[in-house]
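User: quick one
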Amino acid sequence: MSLPKQPIQQRILKYTITALIIVGSIWSASGLEITLEKILKAPEQIAILVGAMFPLDLSAEAIERILPKVAESLFIAWAGTVIGALFSFPIAFLAANNVAVNYISETTKQILNGIRAFPELILAFVFLPITGLGALTGTLAIGIHSIGTLGKLSSEVIEGIDEGPLEAIKSSGGSKINELLFGVVPQVMPTITSYWLYRFEINLRASAVLGVVGAGGVGAELINQLRFRDFPRAGTVLVATVVLVLTVDTISAAIRRRIIKGRSVKV
Amino acid sequence: MINLPKKPPPSLMVFLGIPSALLFSYYCFLKVGFNLSDFKENLENRYLVTDPLFNPKWSWAIENASEALVETIQIAILASIVGCFVALPLSFYASQTTNQNKVSYFLYKSFLNLVRTIPDLFWAMMFTVAVGLGPFAGVLALVMFSLAIMGKLLSETIDSIDPGPLEAAKSSGASHNQSVFTSALPQVLPNFTAYFLYIFELCIRASVILGLVGAGGVGRIIETQRIFLRFDRISPIIVLILLVVILIEQFSVWLRRRIL
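Assistant: Done. Structure below.
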């Protein structure tokens, strides 16, 4: 049976991608001095570390130490998300090209891109000398990064709205402010709120990490316990973080689903 | 007077949800020590950071950081390739379309979820302890990172494929593996490539900070310089990283357009 051949362009693309992947991995592996010996030894080494973590250190002292740190990560993530949500909401209107004038929307978008380019950790250690070690630094870092990401997402939501209601308001004599308040906001609010929650889930993971540079949260605890070779306690930190993240993810996903779907209303 | 339908009363969620969210926000700001007057006072120290930050030492950065920057890119390339290709078979087990066995479906799905909950830098910390400091730990950490994302994205794509071709293959006598290989895989391959490029971008960004915990790459240099507050040396490195990230993003946008 003779099958039709793929067009030549597609075949070339396919072979180029395959070649790129092979060349890329060989170049990287040799550059990083990753040998077969290292790879073969790794599973055993990881098993030793995991073995050392169990049974977890569940003594009262450890829990008293770890739980407040885990909670601090939660507070940082929420406060950072609130900062991001508050500031990104008006900015998103400036960045949306169907609401703002063209050049304002373009500049705002570029500013948001610039903010987004800096990872939270880099923002955190730039803030450290100003705001000091602690949770506030982490909150600001996460808040500012969230302004960038939420601003972009929200402005895209605003750009995707149905223009009909706006026209209706305009034709019945509504002002530009009326258009925004009664035409745009009700349309975009559910999606934007669910993006806030989604960002909160991401920020929780980020705030857990921020402790590494001393910006508050559970990360400092993990790195310290690993440095002191107190593996059962490091295991407790890890498990506590996983439990918190899973719980928050589940609750937040349920709320997001409810916001997007709405509730069943009897008319 | 027009007879409008009655507006439904606001739900319990709005009644309870919004006030409790506001209260919780207030509590959080209290807990993280948000204090405007302290903040204003501390803001006067900003010259410590901003002065050097805006006086970058380019020659120093290019001389000392370019090698580490290449290492960062290598970590991201290797980790995203390995992670995504390990995730490829796992995703088929973590989708109910291609895995009818409820128990193993649940196990694979939970495994992917578990990997996803652990932040990238936590993986890096653990791997530096397990296999020693250096880029190998960074690669392993990002393998887990990309594995988790690809597993989630791809298994959800497989959930939504057209089951027709699978059935056709099975009814013409293909084994389960054969039918998946010939009918499910080609359907998701374009998505796989697009996700791969997306994950590669994420890995480039993530690999920058791996060095902060000793897992290789340019973060190592950032870490040593930031301890001495040498922001004049850090800022050109950050700009270099941004340039690399933008270049790679442009490349992957171009490639994605060709594929999809």
